[in-house]
Amino acid sequence: MLKRMGRYTIAFETRPRITGYGSVAGKKEAQGPLGNNFDKLFYDAYMGQKTFEKAESLLQREAVLFALKRSCLKSEDVDFIFAGDLLNQCIGSSFGVKDFNIPYLGQYGACSTMAQGLIMAAVMVESGAANRAACVTSSHFCTAERQYRLPLEYGGQRTPTSQWTVTGSGCCVLENQGKAPFVSKATVGRIADFGVSDLNNMGAAMAPAASNTIIDFFRDTDTKPCDYDMIFTGDLGYVGSKCLYELLEREGYDISRNHKDCGLMIFDRKNQDVHSGGSGCGCAASVLCSTILPEMIDGEFNNILFVATGALMSPTSAGQGESIPAVAHLVNIRYNQHF
Amino acid sequence: MLKRMGRYTIAFETRPRITGYGSVAGKKEAQGPLGNNFDKLFYDAYMGQKTFEKAESLLQREAVLFALKRSCLKSEDVDFIFAGDLLNQCIGSSFGVKDFNIPYLGQYGACSTMAQGLIMAAVMVESGAANRAACVTSSHFCTAERQYRLPLEYGGQRTPTSQWTVTGSGCCVLENQGKAPFVSKATVGRIADFGVSDLNNMGAAMAPAASNTIIDFFRDTDTKPCDYDMIFTGDLGYVGSKCLYELLEREGYDISRNHKDCGLMIFDRKNQDVHSGGSGCGCAASVLCSTILPEMIDGEFNNILFVATGALMSPTSAGQGESIPAVAHLVNIRYNQHF
Questions:
Q1: Counting CB atoms within 10 angstroms of each CB, which of A169, A187, B135, B258 has the fewest?
Q2: Do residue A131 and residue B2 have CB atoms under 8 angstroms apart?
Q3: Which domains does chain A have, with CATH numbers?
């Protein structure tokens, strides 16, 4: 059973375990600081497919296969898969996972999708609805740029606050048994809209959502930043992380000493020309499944917060002059070698 | 706790109850056979908003307000809201519900979204993760036509198999107490892709998904069509319903005597020029919340299946020559006056 803690947080009693995880990424990610951590790297943006969209679907497919392999399961062993991505109508997911024949629940949380999928999969396992559930998400630089911004051939100048969409995917498989990192608590975010409308500054648009959800969690659980080994945000980047520190400091929380942002981990900002850092659903997902979970298993962290943020706009809403609503979901993941 | 039944079905033990529901619709729906059933009707496609997209968001907002009112709840009483729609990046939902300040989980199931949201909300309530959870979805003729097909001003000829996107929205609020129709069982669908690629024949693309999910449910529960007072499909329309009958007959199931399709209920095909019937996320949602649930409470049905189907393509995937993958989710809703 699940228990509610405070106003916004849920606690998992039987510890849904992340027994499998898989990550794949592209060339720029391969050249970044985490390049050696991914299960598979694709150096060609088309990945042998006819279109970038089909390439993105292949990213999801490969991530699922690695997660299944690591959990020693076949696709027919999985009761539900939660999948989502940034493409219109989430075609990266529907075409990416359709051949697995797993009951499918499409999610849309923009770049918060990995945290959302983790929460939903954990709820299914904890409640008895599933013995095993998976979640997967992806992004691809070439599909995102041409859908959200400009044709790739245009070669437009990027502003300093802009972020670089990660080409990558991450998948987790959760089960109700085994020795593995487990989902301990979670906070589902409310939509925050502070009126930011600069499409080249997603970090600033998403920081208030991250701040709200983190504060909700600390209050609900009566804990503070230093109670956690590390607080990982999804893809706030350099600008968004600074905004988050300021917003949290106003409420008396200092996370600057144990905070990392996946968008800053995946690229070397000095040498890779990514401006404010990485972004995209695949950013938080591929960093979680390539780096964070393996580091937990290696004993580097026992108790972390994984907070993925999403900007819930579209080119249509932006073109109509609307602001950028954002959301952030938080997952408290724990692991104890001796447990 | 939830129990698994057979391979694909889940059973709810404590009967998550649909204590509130709300429905709104547009002018064409007002002129249809269910016109008197909706909570509110908008005769202007803009609904006083600057854009059709903002009008669609207003549809969701109004449906949520009616559902809250009927369940005697305020928005702050609701622990989670599951919302989704057909617009790119689901902006109908994010802009529609953001001001309610309810923890938000965006869903993408195309026209299957109402069934998906109902299942997710029921799981949250059953598992103890929520005391109350809501689900909402919408569609709008003008936003869908120009996004999926052609500019409205173009006035393109429609093929006989095409369907008419419903302008409407439906919302349900679920709680773990009270006297109301309840979610008894559910089957989450797998993605079916039979290679149909005709964008003007969604019914044929979605029928195999509906057939698979209905057969999964009958096998898992060891029941047959006549065990249910009525089987409602979402928006297969005339062509898709015929396909569904054929596919089910091959497996020995005849649902033709107790089947209704929401896409055929909402419009008068003979006099409203809608060709194969209604479609869109708002079709199944608004029919459920305006007609099916009230009829259950009036004692017309005690035990129904609500099967919403979704086509998981996008204009991009269609333009790239891909087929149309589809999914269908089934919810078994029961109500007993004397229970």
A1: B258
A2: no
A3: 2-175 (3.40.47.40), 182-334 (3.40.47.40)
Contact yes or no for B188 and A103 at CB 8 A: yes
Pairing mode, strands A168-175 and A303-311: unpaired
Q: Using the predicted structure, report yes or no on whether residue A150 has a pLDDT greater than 90.
A: no
Q: What tokens does B267 get?
A: 């419009």
- Kindly state the tokens that stand for A297: 């298993």
Residues 296-325 of A with CB under 8 A from B: 312-317, 320, 322, 325
Q: Is the pLDDT of residue B140 over 60?
A: yes
Paired tokens of A40: 């598979």
In which residue are the tokens 């939660």 written?
A: A82
How far A275 CA lies from chain B's nearest CA (Å)?
A: 25
Mean pLDDT over B8-14 rounds to 97
Residues contacting B179, CB < 8 A, separation 6+? B17, B339
pLDDT, one tens digit per residue, over A86-102 is 999 999 999 999 999 99
- Looking at the complex, report in whole angstroms how far the Cα of residue A35 sits from the nearest Cα belonging to chain B: 30
Distances (CA, A) of B88 to A114, A168, B92, B97: 19, 21, 9, 16
Which tokens is A222 given? 């009566």
Residue B219 forms contact with A (CB below 8 Å): no
| ipTM summary value | 0.97
